[in-house]
């Protein structure tokens, strides 16, 4: 992905318009320390012996994996997390943003252990020569913006799994990705259990916070780019909020023009983001300061009444990754912040 923070934010704004990124920041060292030791059912899962040959149906057809893969290469933005959650370790990952060691964020570091996968880049497209040199026996790109031509080239190197049927270039539901990857690893039942475990974590959190039920929430990026701040309509990686009982702000959803695309909102129309709770995926304190300079932002009722949540960089990354491991981190870290917002006690500051 691009190294420029501004470019990465611009890229993430329109996933269907051949762009790639969502955020481009990282948390502080304290964030890493706080999250690195977090326990999770996904991290603790021991990989079961797979059943092969394994056949996987995906966007571009059917792929058969003849035997247990030992040289797994992940070529998309987030797939390394799911491979790790299922108990396998890829020999190569792909850098999205944040420039974390091994392209693995803190919530997945325990599952990676001491492994040192090679880190690829897809900022200029797939690195076919580097991938070929790795001699993979399975290529996973369920969240990779893979086109049919890319799929054919990668399939010539090794069995390749792309996104789910009916998905857009950069939007395939997290649970669908888990099922595809688990099937390719010959462990479909383990993948189904992993999805159930993650949903159960959110169900438990929702039960602990009945005050969330029926409240509206807008989920928004961390700042303005080219005069707009981007908000997420219902169904576009918003499950982490609806699992908790919230309803995504209907005025945002009504403005969505295409599947898989965020809604751009100008400073003059911030009223559509003004829900019972407003969640901003901020990454560092200066993001909040920049928002506070916008008069219409300060006039938002949710902001004025301390019902706005501002994340830190690691939590923002976990929300955007939307993988089993990152979602468990979200289920642990986000609900207390949302509870303060519902009660009108949220600080106008990071975390």
UniProtKB/TrEMBL annotation:
It is found in: Cell envelope. GO terms for biological process: iron coordination entity transport. SUPFAM superfamilies: Helical backbone' metal receptor. InterPro entries: ABC_transptr_periplasmic_BD, Bact_iron-sidero_bind. Keywords: Signal, Transport. One of its GO terms (cellular component) is outer membrane-bounded periplasmic space. Belongs to the bacterial solute-binding protein 8 family. This is Periplasmic binding protein. The lineage of its organism: Bacteria, Bacillati, Actinomycetota, Thermoleophilia, Solirubrobacterales.
């Amino acid at each position: 992905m691009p190294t420029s923070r501004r470019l990465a934010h611009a890229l993430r704004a329109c996933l269907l318009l051949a762009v790639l990124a969502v955020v481009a920041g990282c948390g502080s060292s304290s964030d890493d320390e706080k999250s690195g030791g977090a326990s999770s059912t996904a991290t603790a899962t021991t990989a079961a012996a797979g059943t092969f040959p394994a056949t996987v149906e995906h966007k571009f057809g059917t792929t058969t994996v003849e035997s247990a893969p030992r040289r797994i290469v992940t070529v998309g933005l987030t797939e390394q997390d799911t491979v790790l959650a299922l108990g396998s370790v890829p020999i190569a990952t792909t850098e999205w943003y944040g420039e974390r060691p091994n392209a693995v964020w803190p919530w997945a570091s325990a599952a990676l252990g001491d492994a040192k996968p090679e880190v690829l880049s897809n900022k200029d497209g797939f690195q076919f020569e580097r991938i070929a040199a790795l001699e993979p026996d399975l290529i996973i790109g369920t969240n990779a913006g893979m086109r049919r031509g890319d799929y054919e080239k990668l399939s010539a190197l090794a069995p390749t799994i792309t996104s789910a049927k009916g998905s857009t270039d950069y939007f395939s539901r997290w649970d669908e990705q888990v099922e595809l990857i688990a099937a390719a690893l010959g462990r479909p039942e383990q993948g189904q259990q992993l999805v159930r475990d993650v949903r159960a974590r959110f169900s438990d959190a929702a039960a602990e916070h009945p005050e969330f039920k029926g409240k509206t929430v807008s989920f928004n990026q961390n700042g303005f780019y080219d005069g707009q701040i981007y908000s997420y309509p219902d169904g576009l990686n918003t499950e982490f909020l609806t699992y908790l009982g919230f309803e995504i702000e209907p005025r945002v959803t009504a403005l969505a023009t295409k599947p898989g695309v965020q809604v751009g909102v100008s400073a003059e129309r911030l009223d559509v983001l003004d829900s019972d709770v407003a969640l901003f995926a901020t990454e560092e304190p200066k993001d909040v300061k920049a928002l506070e300079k916008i008069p219409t932002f300060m006039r938002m009722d949710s902001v004025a009444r301390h019902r706005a949540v501002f994340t830190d960089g690691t939590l923002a990354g976990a929300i955007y990754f939307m993988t089993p491991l990152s979602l468990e981190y979200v289920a642990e870290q986000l609900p207390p912040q949302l509870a303060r917002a519902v009660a009108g006690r949220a600080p106008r500051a990071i975390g």
